[in-house]
Specification:
117 residues, Aminopeptidase, 3 helices, 23% helix
Length: 117
């Protein structure tokens, strides 16, 4: 069927605490795609995002994974940065963010040295 794994990141700046959920991995079995399971998984995560004080959900999406890019864009995410060589195979990624409210640009570089398995 499908699953989503995320981590929770907090960052203090001098104005306020910002909280971001980072999608570590998300998958739907190929035979189950197109029936709304990915949307259900992301909607459940977004309900948690609606908690007061939650600012955004972020994901790294492979530049060659066009299906995932289209899915995230359809769900309201926008690409904010490119990370060269992010994945172990050397593939670049697009950092995509779904914002609940304005967050500062420092989140764009927070994961600069984070590598995916």
């Amino acid at each position: 069927m499908g699953y989503i794994i995320y981590s929770f990141w907090r960052k203090n700046n001098w104005q306020h605490l910002q909280k971001v959920k980072f999608i570590e991995t998300m998958a739907v079995h190929p035979e189950e795609r197109g029936i709304g399971l990915g949307r259900l998984l992301l909607n459940d995560l977004s309900k948690v995002l609606a908690t007061p004080g939650e600012n955004a959900v972020m994901a790294e999406v492979g530049e060659q994974n066009l299906e995932a890019q289209l899915f995230f864009r359809h769900m309201g995410f926008r690409a904010v940065a490119v990370e060269h060589g992010f994945f172990n195979d050397g593939q670049d990624s697009y950092r995509m963010i779904l914002q609940n409210k304005k967050i500062d640009r420092s989140w764009v570089v927070l994961f600069r040295n984070k590598k995916s398995v």
